[in-house]
UniProtKB/TrEMBL annotation:
Pfam families: Peptidase_S8, TPPII, TPPII_GBD, TPPII_Ig-like-1. It comes from Triparma columacea. It comes from the Eukaryota. It catalyses: Release of an N-terminal tripeptide from a polypeptide; Hydrolysis of proteins with broad specificity for peptide bonds, and a preference for a large uncharged residue in P1. Hydrolyzes peptide amides. Residues 807-982 form the Tripeptidyl peptidase II second Ig-like domain. GO terms for biological process: proteolysis. Keywords: Aminopeptidase, Hydrolase, Protease, Serine protease. This is Tripeptidyl-peptidase II. Residues 1-26 are annotated as: Disordered. One of its GO terms (molecular function) is aminopeptidase activity. Residues 46-505 form the Peptidase S8/S53 domain.
Amino acid sequence: MSTILSRSSTISSNPPNPPSFPSHGIMPKEITTALPFLTQNPTFDGRGVIVGVFDTGVDSLARGLNGDQKVVGIVDCTGSGDLLCKKVEPKDKALTTVAGPVTLPATVPAGTTFYVGSKRAYELYPKKLINRVSAERKKKFVDACKAPLAQAKEASDALEAKGDKTKEGIKARANAKALIDSLTSAESSYSDPGPIKIVVVQQSPDTHPCAYILDMEKDFPKGGEPPVLSDPMYAFDYNRDVAKFDDASMLNYCLNFETPTDDGIVLTITADAGAHGSHVSGIVGADLGDECMNGVAPGAKIVSLKIGDTRLGSMETGVGVVRALTEAKKRGCHIVNMSYGEASAVANSGLIADLIDEMVYKDNIIFVSSAGNNGPALMTVGAPGGLNKSIISVGAYVDTDMMVSDYSMREIAGGGTNYTWSSVGPAPDGMNGVDIIAPGGAITSVPEWCLQKNQLMNGTSMSSPNCAGCIALLLSALIQKNVPYNAERVKKAIFNTAKIVPDLNTLVQGNGMIQVEKAYEHLMSYKDELSEEVRFETTINRVATKNGVYLRQHDECNKRQTFTVTVNPKFGFLDDDRSIETQTKRVEFEMRMNLKLTIDDCDWISFPDHVVLMHNGRNFAIEVNPCNLPSGLHTTHLIGYDSANPNRGAMFKLPITIVKPQPLDDSDVAPNLGQMNFAPAERKRFFITPPTGATYCDITVKDCRSPKDDASSRLVVLHTLQSFPHTPYRDNEKQQYLYLNPGDTSVTGVACTGGVTMEICVARYWSALGLTEVSCDVRFRGVTPTPETVNISAAGSGTHVRVQSLVSDETVSPVAKLDKFETYLTPKDNKMEAKTGSRNLLLDGITRTYSLTLTYELNLEADASITCRVPSLNGYLYESAMEAQFIMVYDSSKKLLGVSDCWPDAIKCKKGDITIRLQIRHSSISLLKKFEGQVLAVERSLKSPVTLDAYATHCDMVKGGKKFGKRSIPQGNMASMHFAVPSRPKEVKEGDVLIGAVHYESSDSSLAGAGKKPKGWKITVAMGPKEKAPVTPKADVSEVKDERGAVEKMEEELRDWKVAKVEKKIGEDDFDALFDDAVKSYEGWLPLMAAKVKHLEKKRAEDWEKAVIEMADDIVKRIDTDKIAIWGGMKHDLTDGHVVKEKKELDRDKGILTDCLGRKCLALIGEEGWDAAVKDLKKWVKVDGADKFGVIEIEENKSKKLGGLVLGIVKRMDDGSGSKGGLKVYKKKDLLDIRETIYEELGWAWLVEYNRAWKVLEAPSDYQEFN
């Protein structure tokens, strides 16, 4: 026991009892009444309910999720964990793998088939985990380099001190320095290969397949005994097997097996792509035996359906979502939670949207999804959650318990609120966008690899599973009470009993906070009301906003309008159920409905009070007159009630949203939004119509507090947005988080379009404390170019642009810069195939997905980052007509360099040949065939940006005369300019297009902001055929006139043609037949004999060395070497035709001479005569540093034990000089083999293992497949 030597006198020996911890905020359940519901009904805790979690994957060993049968299914729907294992025949009770042999188990059933593959663990690890593990491995690697590096430096210093001037001494010193360089380079250029997993799949008759997962470094040590296969791992679905990759990572994984095919068997190694999915699952149903820490529905089961593709850093893909939908149905899920989403161009549109509708309306699976984290501006709900009518879209709320326990806030100023970033409706088609709100934060389960058991996360990603857990409680009750339900019945109960949160707009909270107790009461009270199951499809006669009245632009907000509302009761999915039971329901259905608004004082809306509704629907008219409304946001809903039972709540709701901008005044170019004092979490919205011709504005936000009173910062959010048809909100928004100190001023430049309503939302961040007082000024500026996008053709004529200043006087000084270029590729190959396995069937279990794989080829003359674009598909995911698009890029060794999807990122590539493969998926072959010729755009950065010159007149442009310079344009006037075609950058080819931006406004230091439109205007220049440089007449240096006759010339041409044909067959089986035929006529012809030497060396048949030496010696004897030597030592008149002819012949003979001497050296490697052969070669050519003779250089230094020099040569070839065209062409694997041999000889064991790992990764046997 420790002895306390001293203690502060200020510490009380009897501390007061600490206050109790507000644990209910850790996993918020009281505000939704989930906790009191569970207290009253402990068995309705989610048991009997299966929740499918569409996410990054779930760690079934995470705290609260590791109970018996809690996680009942784990599926990687993305394909990122797929490994195609190839069939291998055992030999001598062993199998061959890329890491070495493995010994079979002692007992193997007859008829067993084995498959082998390898997988880089980092392809399965989450990014955060890679960063942690890689840092640990790098430290270990660097530490291993230290002692050998010190020894190498000591040895080098000793050799330098010795000062040996002999050739051998100079070489020894160079070798010592090369060893230092190799170690230093290995340390500085360290790139962690990560663990390499060797996989053996065993498929025995009448049993489930199993796999053995081995680690290359641990189980296959260099020179060690082959590992014996033991401890097989079975599929999670069969045996619930879960394993850990290693103690360093703490990453758990499980397996699934696809049906074997002729290509092999696909093993899916499923690990989570992030902690997000486990946290979401913990909110849904973690079971910890603690009512405060438990998930919302601790009795519910979880099916993990991984849609976050690890290859994309956990971004979802179409493949992942579509497969997850199928798996959710197949595995009996009652609820799906999807805490994912993206901005979308269109609502309620696309293949995925259609499949979700089918799942909800036909299969009665309740789909819950996050609304998005992109607020506080309007119209920021994402897909699928906020843009699909069949989904329950959930916003995020933070209550006071959460503020205290989760966020440790020192004071609670304004009570609960929604988070500032929680997305806000409406959807572009008029839907409300947010249906419900729920607590948007929790401290709960995370995977073991996080090295903590719980973590705080917040977002609508957290509110959605809280809502899903609440629904699981309701379904648990219904199932146990044998009460039938469908998705619509549950949605009505939730929406009609939700609790409206004061001071939050309906676009923020939808129907309000979900209330489990009241929803349960509703479900039980109206369980016999068949109309609760009817879906009332409500639309208006407006194509753009058919799902709600949504007026936003100035003109439409200042006129009276009439809309036809159609309410159509739907029975089942697509109304396609023709059973007598459903048909009878249709016939019998009739409801007398009362209509009302959710806000009583909306005198600007006129509507009928009643409507009698039958199957096939009814229409009625409403009138909206917003003319007298003040500027700002106005929302309400037209609601239809059952007049016979109005307490049931709304049967349908039609959203009505008016965003009325401030009065239009083109002369008001600098509206002042005034000084604002914010209540806690308050948002202030301003709707302004930018004046005609405005292209950008500067928004100035100033903190109005006095530094004397307060020195702390305040977090204020500025969010602007304009809405355009078929355009996702992200393309026209600007969101800035401003940390302002008293007196600070922040200026934000925002691109805008004149005449289109712009929202400017200024918000006090939800957790900001203290007085928040700011002022906000807006200044519209800009000039309007015609055309807006400048496209300069390949004809080289330049282009003409007019700019007009409509807003105010402007100074223009055009600056056009091109910094990227695109190359356009057509497919070299295409392959259509049916995707096998049940995972590639759609929801109906019958319709199969097909894929079209297009292959493109590109040669890079320098290292580059490339972005592969498919304009016809990019930018669309949930609203896409196709199931998926995916691109994979490989180098010439088939190594995967990177991937991209509908939002392509740059992929780093080394110079050389690369292969790009694009896969498009859909169930329709005819639709896929339309893409068989799809052109691929490959974008790269220019080495140096290209500036386009602007001229005042066409004449000046043509002559290269006076530049445009700087000019003032009075308001309402125009200026004209001409852009000349730039010179072609060296790396750009014919047909490429240069891409950049042009800024017309002149930056002015007197302006508040940058003084120009953010990002400028797009400009492109198409590159036509390269202009031929003028030819300068030179002296006639042609050979002397050929006086031979036509027959003699023809014989020579025939000889050269035959020799060329023979040379093309070098290394092939039919070479000898062609050579034997040619040699009959041209015996002794040196090019023909040289081709034979090349063939012998390349084919390497038995005794090839002897044959090469003999023939090389014969050729050398036939060459007049003295004449070549004398010629090389003299100067010659190359204007003399006779001399030119002689030079051409001697150059040919010298090339043949050195090639044959080099191949003779290859035949003598390790044999007597090697040194003499190399000496002969060096008489005629410089070997050291010559890529053609790299193999000679390597072998010579290896023979002299100069390993450092060998490593230097390998590095030179590997870094780009290569060996193409050399006596021996080294592939990546060959260089790695040489490097490994030298490392072994030097005793650098850690580098041997490092090299072995990269050898597996750098030279795969085939292209990695898509999924």
